[in-house]
Every structure is written in structure tokens, then in C-alpha cells.
Amino acid sequence: MYTDLFLYFLFSSFALLASLMVISLSNAVHSVLFLILVFCNIAGLLLLLGAEFLSFMLLIVYVGAIAVLFLFVVMMLNIKKTSTTLSFFFNRPIGIITFSILFNQLLGVFNDFDTFGLKQKDLIWISWITEHNNLTNIQAVGKVFYTKYSFLFILSGLILLVAMLGAIILTMHQRTDVKKQKIELQLNRNFGGSVKFINLRK
Amino acid sequence: MYNFYSILPEIYILCNICILLMYGVFFSTFPSLGYPLLNKNFNLLVLQILIFSFLLAFSQTPLNLLNWNNLLISDFFTYYAKLIIILATIGWLLLSFGYSIKEKLNYFEFWILVLLAVVAMLFITQAYDLLTIYLTIEFQSLIFYILASIKRTSEFSTEAGLKYFILGAFASAFLLFGSSIVYGLTGLTNLSDLSKLFLGLIGNEISFNLIIGFIFILVALLFKLSAAPFHVWSPDVYEGAPISVTAFFSILPKLAILGLLFRFLLFTFYDFISYWQSIILIAAFLSILIGTFGAFAQTKWKRFLAYSSINHIGFFLLALLSGDLNSISSVIFYGIIYIITMSGIFAFTVNVNFYAYSKTYQLRYLSNIKGLAKTDPFLAFALTIILFSMAGIPPMAGFFAKLFVLLAAVQVDAFGISIFAVIMSCIACFYYIRLIKNIYFDSVINWKVMEPMHKMSSLILGLSLIGILFLFIDVEMVSIITLLMSIPFLH
Q1: pLDDT in the model for residue A94
Q2: Distance CA B410, CA B416 (A)
Q3: Which of A19, A109, B1, B391 could pair covalently with B432 via S-S, beta carbons 3.0-4.6 A apart?
Q4: How close B70 comes to chain A (CA, Å)?
Q5: How does the average pLDDT of chain A come out, rounded?
Q6: Residue B446 DSSP label
Q7: Which is higher by pLDDT, B229 or B120?
């Protein structure tokens, strides 16, 4: 079976292409989107290696948090966009690819499954002993993380503490002379009080 | 049990950090007390904590063991390095005492960050695993980025922080990349495991990729040490940061990183000596060259001191070349003298303020000290002694430091670089002595009025002066300790 190899090449080539796009695109938003694509592909590669915990962490942390943060920052920076119009013909290949993938899935279901007899053609064997004794990835990570490498765990906790402290020190301004909007004063104003007449000495 | 015993001072400081954080957060936002400024209070508390942790570290037995699952090591070097680092921090605290009150650095978090930085440096001296090395160095650098930009209303300070952050993050990435290459090729992260693996590799083919990984790590460490081809950040960061933070950067972390470099080069990668010797040689050569000639062009004290420290780093690396007992001990000796001298000169630089009507000015330009001999002869004398020591004039401590380093270099027939170092140090003499000429012989038209120094910092200045002046009576007092510290690095 060359499925693994095929998937490996697929993911790595997509990752390469997407990372090339990240640095070559002129629109910052698009390049961040391609960065997310890179992360997704790397997560796929990690899944192939059997490190499912790492791969999902990558998805959650990088795609879920960091890349979205990037996206927000890039959008807030108000970078001038070069507008591109998407034509119908540009969309069509993507549609075809999606369709063929879905169709392939459907075919696969029909191949493995005897639809008329409502039963599976090939039996799948599960070794329940290994399933039972097997350590999942997360369990294995946790077992060394909280025992052998507990020092590193505490150290990374300290690093996070420093990051929190730094963010608070460098950004929180507690000053009294900052000009703020005072809503109660604004609401109290009326037409009568807004213009005053005063007599100047001639 | 030994796990906790060996890092008792760090645990003590960390517990106190937690308590101080709570205390600071509650009290600085307490309306009925009128939002008190906790600056002075925190300064004294931190002083107390450091003195207690010094006593803790001092009363420990020097152990020789690996702990925390071989992630940390404790030996003679870590024992004495801890003592030196905590002592140097106490000295720094005393000399920056007046400055922080005068300049209104009213963030209590500043002192907590200082304590955290001390913990980070103590861990760096004990790091014994690539993972620990990366995490501790990252821990230290993160604190330093914040410290550099702590004066957030000042443009220079934020610029320094940002510059330091970007370049430092780059170096950290190098460190991580190099470690991952080494791990990928060997499957090991522990320094002693790596050293055992490399034991027989001398004559054989060493994988080229391994050397690349090694060089990546070495470059990152040299960057953190601000050795010459990777020194560009240091003058800018030193100049931009508030001067007490500059003093912190230049006094404290050098010894910790240097210890790590020893452990890395002389213990783990000793069998690669033919490869790293040339790299260290180039770095030493460039450090001395740039440190000497760069300092010529400077007009500001902070930049001047930055280049001068690059020059000293060159001497550290010079003695590293041979990698035997003598040379390690001479580097540590130089390091201790460096800490003493830098404490002295920063006690001067941080605390000298000139009074011009209605305002006081900090010492900023080198030419500010013209005519100091007339306005304050004792201070002028103290500064002269320190500058003589930095230049390496015989009876001062700086002379012995340079002498031992050069002797160690000559013993392995490194004549070329030794002669070069001697010539460069003669040239360096010129600008140190030019400052002394400014102090004593230049006539000034506008006499300056100086504010009296803070009592604590004058204490530090005096102590460092005594150390520099009277070391020659008993050099062994220091050199025995340095010899003890250098023993663990031998095979």
C-alpha cells in the first residue's frame, strides 16, 4: 500500500507550495490564509507520523489562536489592497477537485460495503489486547511530562508568568491625566447650559 | 530529596516572588491607602530576599550530582557561580537604589522581574540538557526584553526593547534549530550523553550536519554573550535602556552564559575542538578589534561601556581557545574581576548627576567629566583607579586578569593572537587614559555643580575600589576559587 507515501507527498508538496505563496503574495490577508494552510498540512504530516496529540495541538494553537490573531492584526493595520476579481472559471477547478474527492468517498463506501445485502465485505480485525494495553499519545506525553520532565514543565510555567507580567507592565497605563469620555457629564448637558453669555469689560 | 536541596535558593526566591506579586498587586491598587508607591519598599524587600538566598546558597554543601532527572547539574562551578551571581545582584541593587527613586521607575514589577532574572541566571549555570539550556535562556531573554523597555514613556527605551526582542528572538530560533538538528541526528539531548557519544569520534568522519547544528547553537550562545560578529545589538540596547538596566545587563548575565559556553564547548563538544577552535579564534579576534576601535568613536558613556565590554568578551574567548584547566580558571578569574570593575564604573555612571539651574542632568557624554578633579577630587581618584584597572595597568586587578588570560594563551602557542591582544590593549589604554586626561588636565569654562552620590552606591564604589586596588596582595584568594570552579569542566 502506497497510501502513506502518497499522503506524505501530498501534504508536504502542499505545505511547500503554500509556504511559497505566503512569502510571494502581495496581499497580507491572503498570505496569512496560506499560512493557515501550511499549518493544516503540517498537522496532516504529524498525523501520518502517528503524533496525533501534537498535530491537534498544532491545529488548536497555531490555527485557532495565533493565525487568527495575525489575521486580526493584519486587518487592523489597514494595508492597501490590490483588488483582484475572481472569475467563474477560476472557481471551477476547485469545484471539480472537491466534487471528485467527495465522489471518490462515495465510491469507496460502495466498494467496501455490500449495499444490497447490507453487510461488510471484508472483515476488519481488531486486536483488543493491544487496544486495551495501548498507551495513547497523550497518556505517554503526560506520563513523562509530569514526572521526568517536571522541571521543564515548571520552567515553562515561569516563562508564561514572565510573558504575562511583561504584557501588563508595558501596556497598562494607570494615569490620572488621561482624557477620557465621561458619559454622565455628556448626558447632563442641555441646550441651555451649552452656550454662555458673559459681559466683557469695555 | 537532593532535587530540592540543590536548588533551594531558587525555590526560596520563587516562593518569595509569588508572595511579593500578590502583595504588590493588592497594595498598589488599594484605594483607602491612596494607591501607594511600593518602589522603596520593594527595593528593600528584594535586598532582604537576596541576602537570605545568599546565606542559603552559602550554607549548602557543594554537591557533585545530577538532579531533576539529569536536567540540572550541581558541582563546584555552580556552587560558586551562584554565590557570585547573587552577590553581584546585591551589589547592583545597592548601586541602582538611588537611581530608581530619583528617576521614578515606579513599577513594583521591575523588582519582581529582577528576582526572576536572578533565578533564570542561576538555572542557566546549572543547565545540563539541551532542553534546559533552551528554556532557561529563553526565560532570561524574555525578562531582559521587558527590562530593556521598562521605561515605556521613553522612545529610546522602547526602541531598545524592540530591537533586543527581534534580534534576540532570532538568536533563540538559532539555538532551537541547532538543538533540533543535534537531537535529530543523535537522539540525545543530555550533555553528558552527547559527550559520551562523541568520545571516539576524533579521527573519524563526523557528520557534516552535526557540525552545522553545533555551529547554530554556538552562534546563539555567542550572540547572547555579545561576542563580536554578533555584537551589533549590544551598543544600541545598552544605550536605549535605562542606565540601571544597562548596568544589570553588563554586570550579571555574562558569567552565567560563559559557564554554559564552557560546559557546552569544553565538556560536551570537546572532541570537536578542531572545528570550534577556529570559530572561537575569529570571534575573539573580532571582539578585541571591534571592542577597541569601536570605543574610540563613542561620545556617550553607555555606548563606550558597551564596546568596552565587547573588548572584555574578546579576552574571555581568547583564553577559551586552549580549553585546559589553566585557561578555564583564568577566564573565570577575568570574569570575577570584570564583575567587580563593572560594578565600580556603573556605581559611578548611574549615580552622577549634574545640577544646572532648576534641573539635574544625568551623566551622558564622555566629555561631561571634564574638570571632575576640581569639583570632586575623591570621586575623580576612584574613577581613575577603575579606568586604570580596565586599561590593565600593573598593580590593579585588571592587569592580573589580562596577564593570566595571555599566559594561558601563550602556553598553547597562540602567539599571533596573544601579540595582537597585547597591541590592542595598548591602543585601548589610550582611550582609557584619554578619559583620565579629561578628568585631570582639561580646563573647563562652565563649572558644573554635582549632586552628592547616593550613600549605598558610594558604598559599592568603595568596595569595588578596594577589590581592584588590593587584589595584588593576595591574588590566590580569588584564584583558588576559580581553580575549584574550573575543575568540573575537565574530563
Answers
A1: 83
A2: 9
A3: B391
A4: 9
A5: 82
A6: S
A7: B120
Distance from CA of A26 to the nearest CA of B (A): 23
Residue A151 and residue B71: Cβ atoms within 8 Å?
yes
Fold assignment, A1-134: Four Helix Bundle (Hemerythrin (Met), subunit A) (1.20.120)
Distance CA B316, CA B261 (A): 11
Residues in B touching A149 (Cβ below 8 Å): 69, 71, 131
Contact list in A for residue B70 (CB cut-off 8 A) is none
Of how many residues is chain A composed? 202
Which of B63-72, B117-126, B319-328, B374-383 tops mean pLDDT? B117-126
Sort out which chain A residues have CB atoms less than 8 A from B138's CB and list them.
159
In chain A the first and final C-alpha atoms are separated, in Å, by 103
Q: Please give the average per-residue pLDDT across B160-180, as a whole number.
A: 94
Pinpoint the alpha helices (H) of B66-207.
Answer: 76-95, 97-102, 108-126, 130-148, 155-186, 191-197
List % helix, strand, coil for chain A (3-state, nearest 5): 70, 0, 30
Domain carrying residue B339:
2-489
Residue B203: its pLDDT value, please?
Answer: 60
Interchain proximity B109–A150, CB inside 8 Å: no
In the predicted model, what is the mean pLDDT of chain B? Answer: 90
Closest partner residue to B135 among A148, A150, A155, by Cβ? A155
Cα nearest neighbour of B123 on chain A: A155
Rounded distance between C-alpha atoms, residue B326 and residue B407, angstroms: 9
* pLDDT value of position A117: 65
Contact list in B for residue A162 (CB cut-off 8 A) is 113, 116, 139, 142-143, 146
Instruction: Give me B79's grid cell.
Output: 556552587
Of the listed ranges B8-12, B127-131, B274-278, the one predicted with least confidence: B274-278
Residue B54: the pLDDT is 96
Cβ of A155 within 8 Å of Cβ of B69? The answer is no
Contact across the interface for B139 and A168, Cβ inside 8 Å? no
Nearest chain B Cα to A160, which residue?
Answer: B139
Judged by CB atoms closer than 8 Å, whether chains meet at A165 and B112 is answered as: yes
Residue A166 to residue B142, Cβ atoms within 8 A: yes
Question: Which residues have C-beta within 8 Å of that of residue B485, sequence separation ≥ 6?
Answer: B76, B77, B80, B81, B328, B329, B332
Number of structural domains (chain B) is 1
This complex has an ipTM of 0.91
Contact B132 A156 (CB under 8 A): no
User: So what's the pLDDT on residue A177?
Assistant: 65
Contact A162 B71 (CB under 8 A): no
CA angle, B329 then B331 then B335, to 5°: 115
Chain A residues whose CB is inside 8 A of the B142 CB are: 159, 162-163, 166
Long-range contacts of B183-187 (CB under 8 A, 24+ apart): B183/B130, B184/B213, B185/B209, B185/B210, B185/B213, B186/B210
* H or E element that contains A114: strand A113-114
- Angstrom distance (rounded) from CA A163 to CA B169: 14
Kindly state whether A144 is in contact with chain B, defined as any CB-CB distance less than 8 angstroms: no
Residue in the block written with cell 530540592: B4
pLDDT tens figures, B357-371: 778 888 888 888 888
Residue A120 contacts by C-beta under 8 Å, 6 or more apart in sequence? A112, A113, A114
**Quick check: A187 contacting B, CB < 8 Å?**
no
Per-residue pLDDT tens for A53-91? Answer: 888 888 888 888 888 888 888 877 766 655 566 666 677
Reply yes or no on whether the pLDDT at A202 is more than 80.
no
> What's the half-sphere exposure (Cβ side, CA atoms, 13 Å) at A112?
8
Domain boundaries, chain A: 1-134, 137-175
Give the pLDDT score at B409. 87
